[in-house]
Amino acid sequence: MDQSSTSSDSSGFKKQSTSSDEDRGFYVEADVFVDEYVAGSSLDLDPGDRMVATREYYGSDDAVERISFQNPGQRMAGVEENEQKGHPSEDLDEHEQSTLTGTIVEDMPASTKKCSGCGANFHCKDSSLPGFVPLEILEKIDRKSSSYHHQQSLCKRCHLLQEHNFLLNVNVCDVDYGRMMSELKKQPESLVVLVVDVTDLPGSIYPKLAQIVGARRPMIVVGNKVDLLPPDAKTGYMWRFKKTVERAVEKAGLLEHFNILHTALVSAKTGYGIEELITEIYLKYTNVKLGMRGDIFLVGCTNAGKSTMFNALLQSDLCKVRAVDLVDRATTSIWPGTTISLLKFPVMKPGPYRLEMRRRRLLTHRAWNKKEMYARKLLLAETGDDRYAIPTSVIQNTYKDSEEELQPMALRELQGEDEETEAERKNEEKRKYSLDDPIFAKGKWCYDTPGTVNENQVLSLFTLDELVNVTPRRVLKPRTCLVKAGESLLIGGVGRIDIESIAGYSNVLLTTFANDQLPLNVMPTHEVEEFYRKWLGTPALVVPQGDTKRMASWPGLEGGRRFDMKGRRDEGCCDIVLSSIGWVMVTSEKDVVLNAFAPANKGITARVQPILPYSASLRGKRLPGSQFYKVQPIEFPVNVRRKRAEARKRAEKKKEREEELHNL
What we know:
By secondary structure, this protein is an alpha+beta fold. It is 29% helix and 17% strand.
């Protein structure tokens, strides 16, 4: 695996460019990034795990003598490995064969079978593209007649990501979205589930979606990654989150072209809101006979969480029980472009009996959820740990246990076999079913589609090292600073807010919601350019970083947009959104004129109704000698009306007891 950094062309797709001799990668443990840049190189990996050939051969296949040249930095073991001819042993599975050095054949056509992790067609043309497997494994996959075997096969990239937690920098080829989404135009009754990132609105909404998938069709809008938003200072913040998503969808013009059935807030990572989303699909997208009206397509921009949503729905009541174990979970990673082709699973038909079973389970789960929420509030107050502020829920399959109970007892079970034989029997039973069986043929399907590219997103401008420090992965804590007219706020090296003027003598509070790794600096506006040039590419600004070649490709913070905002009392007056980076809420009682800057001047928008309008009041004491305020631990807001009602009830009960004692 050669170390590679990424840049983007005008279409937004990534290109691969070699920047040094060492490999780079990272893996994710829970919500923590673990970097292994220095710990190893390509020489420490098995030959089959390298994405480049160890030797290059010159000469035709029927030549008497062939000349081989060893590539730089590769082991001598490649000589014996590459000289072995023939096919690997049929007793080895695909993952065991990945330890052998494979053959790359550029002129060989791609296979019709697809990787169950990323959905790309298997091929042996280019090791840097998704779907690559060596020629030996590709021939074995093509020889498999059973669809179950190739359904469980992974390409080398997905295998490294799932088995070794190692993410490769790969070239993502230009995908023809019109061709891949043509299936939706043929099905006018199919349901479009639009997945948007609530931390990147409106950047994660593709404005030309109606032209690609066709207009006048039912749609459900899903605001994902709600677990990254902190609670506001006042109650009702979930309702305000939902209204923000609805206003962004309306502003993008989707309300005019689609029949929006419902808007939901979910967290595919923690399971929050998934069960409610499935209930809305059953209520609003079924016909008179309680059958699904059409197929379901998960659509959205890159990095919106579609693959994570697909994995969550796969384990829920929306998927048929017999298909749960047949469909592998989609390979998910932070880098856009993980889903290449259409992954799918069959949708369960919600009959009356099944709906009643599901209703009873949800009622039982609701009581447990209330107790869990109360316990999390107590733990958050005691420990101050942000984990207890994240909305969570459990995703279950109501029909899985009942389906197994309804199956007749086999003769082997009556004869009492040992555990090892029973395990083998279960594996054989799983292989009897495949997604091509007639029991799934006439049903409806749920598809995970590739991410569309939004020209306002700046994710493709960052390298993998920089993307780790830019993309939010934890709860976004509000960081507030006091800024005067003629001063600027610099967010790492990726964002800048200049306060041009303020009506009257007043100050402005700027509350930043971005990755904690990005440092904040406040300084006079006339000093920003010199400061930026001095520290660009150094750890002082965190992003961007790199050598002279990387800094030459960095677009910089040029151009900018000017905004005139009306002041408001006791709440924020506007959100300045920097797509893929975060947003800055402006709080001022007076009118403010400011300028906003972002990389390549892309993705800068103003949100008139802030998503967290009261978050400035969550700041702590002002730090001595600084314009910043202390970041307070996250707390749930107090429902003032409920507290007053409870106090009023206690006062009435106390008064009644005093009257009873007085009468006695």
